[in-house]
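Hi R.,

As promised on Friday, here is the backbone we talked about, encoded as structure tokens. Could you run it through your design pipeline when you get a chance and send me back a sequence?
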């Protein structure tokens, strides 16, 4: 096993005991594993250290070196006294027998290099041994050659024995490459083979289990014994925790530590209770620290991340980190924490990853292995320990639609037939409600408007008072709802009871709806007298730790009344102690029906006989949507108790209509949600990483799961780049084009881009069409060539032909037909050109014939289009063009004779026309000036006018370029295109391999600029005192908290007022009743809100995708300011609950988190040197820490 490594040149001394567990912002984090081969993490040895150069200088009488490497200056030691010393110098024998190449080398160079690369502590331990061995080496120098031969022999023996050991291990474990399926760094072995020989492979288990292990458990344990990391993917209740327990047992056996991380505090508390009797266990959460010296620590993932960033010394002792519920990495808000922790863990720590079944297990494991440079063994099972059957409940009957992962269409058909029969036989049908798959409109509206449905007056009302708030969005009164709900649930409960399918967990997607459904079952009693007695005794014992007034809270009394009848509710709005009572009683089996939100499936390991879905739609905070297959599987997995039930039953409630078969298939047997990266940059992450020279922020970005595929392909891209650089580049051999073709190509591409922007708008405008008349000089786009064509409009569009007839000059001259000169005769071959005969050989008609000018009527085109010819030494062509093919309208107009050109095809007329076009070229420009876009074309769009001017300017530059008029221009342009593409490919590959290609790089640059502007870092990216304070802020938005502290916004506030305003940092519910604030609190609230707006505007200024108003509202929620203020003043909990419509559970959660915020602000005050603020935060923390809010967890203290 590797030891821990410090990040930096010098080893870090162990810190004070108070920082052993949590670390300190002054500590450097340990070097993350997997960075050993990266360029950014290589230790740069000072020049001359490994070559012995400085020793040679010293031997030659040079000055001693007094400045330590990486230091700017040294201590003034005064004049050094000379000390006689003998230097052992030997001749280097590594020159393969070539005497002429032999050199003198200082014997201890290698030791010096080693001293730089290894920790000083290990060096100090070996000082005596090293000195002794060096002495022996000096004495044995005359026999150097013999010693080398002996060393080689010993080395051969070591390698031989190591190879034998490896082969033996492969033979025993089946761990050869032939038997491993390897995908990158993720490997998968033969579970059956390992299971068959398990007790031979692991004869002395660290812990014995009272049951036979499954194959995947045996494979995982075998890997743990060999010190390998494992990824276990299996369904809920499949036994993944066995692997975690074995890692705990190994840590205990090896006298190291193991850390169990969970995404939810409830899971941490429950696991603490489960492991407490088996191992030496400690618990670390935001507000609880129990036995931190234990060898097995259970904590939330955020706590572990904080330890890593703060360089806690306890990291040195950790051998295993167990990540439970790894699929939580998909969580938008907190998924980034998993990626940060995995990237930051040192290389000596091994992984145990426990996850539900996901499609891309190998991909995720490969990312972890590639990031940490260690193989990850993937194991698990897709088999459920208790098979599930899925049913629809409609009109009092259960219809089986899926069993053993096989869909049953007959069940759907029967349910649909029942729906049709019911509808046809119904005498009166209520207006059809929108149900989607199986939801009803009432449920949807209740979820969406849940916060508003609980008023201040009726929040604690009993079932008979619930009529004050309407569950549905229509005029349905509460009595009707209660009767309808009770009828539906009684039908289902009776059905399940007859089939012995209780206890049941009913998943609803609204806290309010859970309460209302439970309260609707007023006359239902599901418990026996003995169970009632057990419930009463348990509740009395659990609630006895509360003070008198807290025992009589409306919620406590209401829940106790439900529990006595075997009915429970479980959601985030419950008080923590009430939730724990419900969970424990459910695990005991005395609660028969539990109405719960989906958090019960994630946070509590409490399987039931049956699971019921009230709906297959949920509101996710933004919109109503169908359940994802992964969400359905997670909740459905709670059905079926291992060892008690042969099958688990999952029921989908159908009220007014049966879901479509396609929707049910997708949800029930659809593919689970893939693990996807939710990595995002935070200011705290940047500030922590800027304190570590060897781990840049770019390194963190590269190692994120989001960049995994791009980084994985880097070696291929590197090879492709080398191949492309080795390709020979074609040269253009042309006097004209060789030096100017690339410039010409750039002009051409830029002109095309401009033209595409404005040609359609300009050329199709009415004013432009008015100029396109006969005789107008234009520039046309060539069909195949690169060069543009100068031409003249011969005829405009007509009813029969919508094209313009234009004569254009070709730059190339068609080759003459062999032994033949064409004099005015039109060839049937369009590729054959026309040539002008000498004047002495021209006919009279050709030279002097003119058609009578008095010819009237419209011109009839008698020449065959396209019409080719040669005149004045250049080729020309007459053909039809669409208006989209015009590139430019020139300000010139020439005289033409339509009849002679289009009807007669007179060569003299064509010659005259071509000559006029050639005469228009002046000052070396190929094209005449274009029409003015403002004066002539009357364009009013400023951007369009600017583009037009730019485009005409580019055309002029093209005509002035050397390449213009080159006979082989088209061929040269193709070569130029290839050269440009080659250069672009090289540039793109270099960019893709650079840090600039990282997805989050623009956001990183913007955030760096923001931190500089605020003063958290300086221009050299050195973290300042503001940055150190920001590193302490984990519970609130770091920038707002930091600026608030440095602006001393709490100076004028009392401790109770300060902690009340601070509640805005941690409170999470958006829609609440408006608090009633004192003028002082209102002023402080507005000041803090203005600070957030200012910071939002600053971030938007640096191109971060942030809306200042949304930023302020998202990070500051003032809904509990009044409540916390009264609580800090000593008001009883029952009274503060009447001040708001926020559920009691959220109030407690906010105040508990607020205590953690007070500790963070207190630490920040110590860094700032603000003793007044430090004292104020201490008083504020003491003011809120009392009574039911900080009642100890039943999981921790026991009942």
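Update: got your reply. Pasting your designed sequence below so it's all in one thread:
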């Amino acid at each position: 096993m590797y030891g821990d490594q410090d990040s930096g040149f010098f080893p870090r001394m162990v810190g004070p005991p108070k920082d052993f567990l949590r670390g300190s912002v002054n500590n450097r984090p340990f070097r993350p594993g997997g960075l050993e081969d990266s360029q950014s993490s290589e230790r740069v040895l000072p020049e001359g250290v490994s070559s012995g150069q400085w020793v040679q200088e010293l031997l030659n009488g040079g000055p001693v070196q007094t400045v330590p490497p990486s230091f700017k200056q040294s201590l003034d030691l005064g004049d050094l006294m000379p000390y006689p010393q003998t230097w052992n110098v030997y001749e280097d024998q590594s020159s393969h027998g070539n005497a002429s190449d032999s050199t003198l080398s200082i014997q201890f160079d290698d030791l010096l290099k080693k001293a730089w690369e290894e920790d000083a502590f290990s060096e100090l331990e070996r000082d005596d041994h090293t000195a002794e061995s060096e002495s022996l080496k000096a004495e044995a120098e005359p026999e150097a050659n013999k010693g080398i031969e002996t060393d080689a022999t010993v080395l051969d023996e070591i390698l031989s024995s190591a190879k034998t050991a490896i082969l033996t291990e492969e033979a025993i474990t089946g761990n050869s490459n032939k038997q491993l399926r390897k995908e990158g760094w993720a490997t998968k072995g033969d579970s059956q083979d390992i299971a068959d020989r398990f007790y031979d492979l692991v004869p002395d288990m660290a812990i014995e289990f009272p049951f036979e292990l499954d194959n995947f458990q045996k494979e995982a344990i075998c890997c743990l014994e060999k010190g390998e990391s494992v990824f276990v993917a299996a369904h809920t209740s499949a036994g993944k925790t066995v692997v975690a327990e074995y890692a705990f047992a190994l840590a205990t056996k090896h006298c190291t530590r193991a850390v169990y991380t969970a995404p939810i505090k409830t899971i941490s508390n429950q696991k603490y209770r489960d492991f407490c009797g088996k191992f030496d266990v400690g618990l670390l959460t935001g507000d609880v620290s129990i036995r931190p010296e234990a060898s097995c620590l259970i904590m939330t993932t955020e706590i572990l991340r904080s330890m890593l960033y703060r360089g806690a010394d306890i990291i040195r002792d950790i051998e295993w980190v167990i990540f439970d519920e790894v699929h939580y990495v998909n969580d938008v808000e907190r998924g980034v924490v998993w990626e940060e922790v995995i990237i930051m863990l040192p290389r000596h720590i091994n992984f145990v990853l426990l996850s539900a079944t996901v499609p891309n297990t190998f991909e995720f494991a490969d990312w972890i292995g590639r990031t940490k440079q260690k193989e990850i063994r993937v194991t698990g099972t897709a088999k459920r320990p208790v098979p599930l059957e899925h049913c629809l409940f409609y009109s009092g009957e259960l219809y089986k639609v899926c069993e053993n992962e096989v869909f049953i269409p007959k069940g759907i058909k029967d349910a649909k037939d029942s729906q049709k029969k019911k509808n046809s036989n119904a005498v009166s049908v209520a207006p059809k409600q929108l149900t989607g798959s199986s939801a009803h409109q009432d449920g949807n509206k209740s979820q969406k408007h849940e916060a508003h449905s609980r008023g201040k007056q009726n929040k604690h009302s009993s079932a008979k008072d619930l009529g004050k708030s309407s569950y549905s969005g229509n005029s349905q009164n509460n009595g009707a709802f209660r009767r309808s709900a009770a009828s539906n649930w009684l039908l289902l409960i009776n059905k399940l009871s007859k089939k012995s399918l209780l206890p049941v967990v009913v998943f609803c997607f609204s806290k309010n709806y859970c309460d209302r459904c439970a309260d609707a079952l007023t006359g239902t009693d599901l418990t026996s007298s003995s169970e009632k007695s057990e419930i009463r005794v348990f509740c009395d014992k659990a609630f006895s730790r509360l003070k008198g007034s807290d025992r009589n809270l409306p919620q406590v009394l209401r829940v106790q009344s439900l529990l006595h009848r075997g009915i429970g509710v479980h959601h985030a709005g419950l008080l923590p102690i009430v939730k724990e009572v419900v969970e424990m009683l459910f695990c005991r089996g005395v609660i028969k029906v539990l109405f719960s939100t989906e958090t019960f499936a994630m946070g509590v390991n409490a399987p039931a006989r049956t699971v019921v879905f009230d709906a297959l739609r949920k509101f996710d905070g933004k919109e109503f949507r169908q359940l994802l297959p992964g969400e359905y599987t997670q909740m459905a997995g709670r059905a079926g108790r291992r060892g008690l039930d042969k099958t688990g039953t999952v029921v989908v409630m159908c009220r007014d209509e049966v879901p479509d078969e396609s929707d049910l298939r997708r949800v029930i047997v659809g593919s689970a949600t893939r693990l996807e990266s939710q990595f995002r940059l935070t200011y705290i992450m940047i500030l922590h990483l800027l304190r570590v020279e060897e781990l840049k922020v770019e390194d963190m970005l590269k190692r994120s799961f989001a960049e995994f595929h791009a980084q994985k392909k880097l070696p291929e891209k590197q090879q492709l780049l080398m191949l492309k650089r080795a390709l020979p580049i074609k040269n253009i051999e042309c006097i004209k084009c060789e030096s100017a073709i690339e410039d010409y190509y750039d002009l051409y591409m830029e002109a095309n881009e401009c033209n595409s922007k404005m040609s359609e708008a300009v050329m199709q405008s009415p004013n432009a069409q008015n100029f396109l008349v006969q005789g107008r000089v234009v520039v046309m786009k060539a069909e195949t060539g690169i060069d543009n064509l100068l031409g003249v409009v011969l005829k405009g569009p007509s009813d029969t032909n919508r094209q313009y007839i234009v004569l254009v000059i070709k730059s190339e001259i068609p080759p003459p037909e062999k032994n033949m000169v064409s004099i005015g005769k039109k060839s049937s071959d369009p590729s054959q050109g026309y040539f002008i005969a000498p004047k002495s050989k021209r006919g009279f008609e050709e030279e002097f014939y003119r058609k009578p000018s008095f010819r009237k009527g419209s011109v009839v085109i008698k020449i065959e289009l396209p019409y080719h010819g040669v005149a004045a030494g250049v080729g020309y062509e007459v053909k039809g063009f669409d208006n989209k093919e015009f590139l430019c309208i020139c300000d010139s107009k020439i005289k033409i004779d339509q009849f002679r050109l289009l009807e007669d095809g007179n060569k003299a007329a064509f010659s005259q026309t071509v000559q006029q076009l050639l005469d228009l070229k002046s000052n070396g420009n190929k094209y005449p000036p274009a029409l003015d876009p403002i004066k002539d074309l009357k364009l009013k769009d400023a951007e369009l006018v600017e583009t037009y001017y730019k485009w005409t300017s580019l055309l002029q530059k093209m005509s002035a370029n050397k390449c213009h008029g080159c006979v082989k221009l088209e061929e040269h342009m193709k070569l130029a295109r290839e050269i440009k593409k080659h250069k672009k490919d090289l540039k793109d590959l270099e960019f893709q391999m650079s840090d600039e290609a990282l997805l989050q790089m623009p956001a990183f640059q913007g955030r760096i600029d923001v931190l500089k502007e605020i003063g958290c870092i300086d221009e050299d990216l050195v973290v300042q005192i503001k940055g150190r304070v920001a590193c302490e802020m984990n519970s609130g938005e770091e920038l707002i908290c930091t600026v608030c502290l440095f602006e001393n916004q709490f100076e004028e506030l009392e401790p109770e007022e300060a902690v009340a305003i601070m509640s805005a940092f941690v409170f999470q519910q958006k829609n609440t009743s408006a608090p009633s604030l004192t003028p002082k609190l209102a002023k402080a609230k507005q000041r803090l809100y203005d600070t957030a707006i200012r910071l939002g505007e600053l971030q938007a200024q640096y191109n971060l995708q942030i809306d200042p108003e949304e930023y302020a509202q998202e990070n500051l929620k003032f809904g509990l300011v009044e409540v916390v203020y009264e609580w800090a003043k000593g008001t009883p909990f029952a009274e503060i609950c009447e001040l708001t419509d926020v559920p009691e559970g959220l109030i407690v959660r906010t105040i508990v988190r607020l205590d953690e915020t007070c500790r963070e602000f207190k630490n920040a005050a110590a860094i700032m040197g603000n003793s007044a603020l430090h004292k104020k935060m201490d008083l504020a923390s003491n003011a809120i820490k009392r009574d039911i809010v900080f009642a100890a967890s039943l999981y921790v203290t026991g009942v």
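One thing I noticed while checking it: DSSP finds 47 helices and 28 strands in the chain.

Thanks again,
M.
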